[in-house]
Amino acid sequence: MNFETKVLHAGIEPDPSTGAIMTPIFQTSTYVQAAPGDHKGFEYSRTHNPTRDVLQNNLAALEQTQHALCFSTGMGAIDACVKLLSPGDHVVSTNDLYGGTYRLFTKIFEPLGIQFTFVDMTHAENVVAAMQPNTKMIWVETPTNPMVRIIDIEAMVAIGKNANALVAVDNTFASPYLQNPAVLGADIVMHSVTKYINGHSDVVMGALCINDTALRDRLAFIQNSCGATPGPQDSFLVLRGIKTLHIRMQRHCENGAKIAHWLRQHPKVGVVHWPGFEDHAGHAIAKKQMKDFGGMMSFTLKNDSIEAAFTFLRNTHLFSLAESLGGVESLVGHPASMTHASIPREQRMAGGLLDSLIRLSVGLEHVDDLIADLEHALSKV
Ligand SMILES: *Cc1c(COP(=O)(O)O)cnc(C)c1O
Asked: Are 179 and 291 within 8 A, CB to CB?
């Protein structure tokens, strides 16, 4: 089945009792048993819920994995992955990591005895150098946030296999439409479903997609034991959002490409970070592992100052200033004062995250209207 057909049909059957074409919202916490242990496969909704099960099966099909597990948030999904490890284990990850993941790793799990090393994963030799005898997991995120760098998933998988370490890829920025890390050998594909997969800025959810059944069972045990599971209403909304994922992604990419090229020729714009440019450091790898280049980008202003960035941000109207990304409406963010404010300025600057860096999540509005909005805001800088 092709992706466009899977979003509508994979794992989704009309309701057997009524023929309802849409998956019912099984808004129930428990299920009646005829006799102790005599039930229809459902006992309690933390463990199983029919609406969630359909979503999990659909997500597995989209990532081309055997299994998927949904969590109440993306962070809940990442938390479950780290709980596969024990004190004394070591994780290698990227230095351009989602802030919430960095916080979970360093503020929650490091004090519990799990060790982390953060390196520039765009150079595989840095990852090789960071590997230790106790390295049990490589945590990858590509494209990265907010620098939109590209990490070679196959190279990370080769290092992980060689060291008997699990390779997990946060695939949130790409979505399963653009990139399928498990097909490239990753053990775990993680999503903040909140972003492109749901796409309508009305649900917070996470997911893990896995091939290995023993690994799936360990993660399902953690999912049920720790309890960060999503409710049936949210599962329904995500199933609904997914029905247009392929069409949304196509338009995100189309609008993204036009805006990236437009920004690049603008006299007030400094550098534009977008992997579709042939001179982007990760362009060749992006071409190899992604179907298209996505709608996420960041850029700096020639006048590189917080003040200039704030002037710009006060003057966009269609691009709303907000955290999050991947929704139908365009969003703009200022990493230096928002998502990455906790990183010391020198460290931030060294990584290319300048004071004026502005991140765009390009939505589905008409691209001419979006460009007019950016032009207006730039004219005020
Ligand atoms: C948003 C996000 C997360 C966290 O997901 P939540 O659903 O907000 O808990 C993790 N990784 C990336 C790349 C994200 O953008």
From this structure: yes
In the structure, what pLDDT confidence band is assigned to residue 349 with cuts at 50, 70 and 90? confident
Residue 316 has pLDDT above 80, yes or no: yes
How many angstroms separate the CA atoms of 120 and 111, rounded? 24
* Rounded (10°) CA dihedral 97, 101, 106, 110: -120
Q: Which of 149, 195, 248, 359 is catalytic?
A: 195
How far, in Å, from the CA of 74 to the mean position of ligand 1?
5
170 is catalytic: yes
In words, the CATH class of domain 3-242 is: alpha beta
Q: Does the N-terminal peptide bond of residue 232 adopt cis geometry, omega within 30 degrees of 0?
A: no
**Confidence label for 142 from pLDDT (cuts 50, 70 and 90):** very high
Q: Is 149 a catalytic residue?
A: no
* Minimum CA distance residue for ligand 1 atom 6: 74
Distance of CA 34 to the CA centre of its chain: 42
Tell me, yes or no, if 195 is annotated catalytic. yes
Q: Reply yes or no on whether the pLDDT at 343 is more than 80.
A: no
Which residue, by CA, sits nearest to atom 9 of ligand 1? 74
* Domain covering 246-379 assigned CATH 2.60.40.10 in the classification: no
In the sheet that holds 296-301, the strands lie side by side as 269-273, 296-301, 358-361, 331-333, 320-321
- pLDDT on residue 351: 80
Domain edges within the chain: 3-242, 246-379
Scanning 113-244, the segments in alpha helix (DSSP H) are: 124-130, 153-163, 175-178, 213-226, 232-242
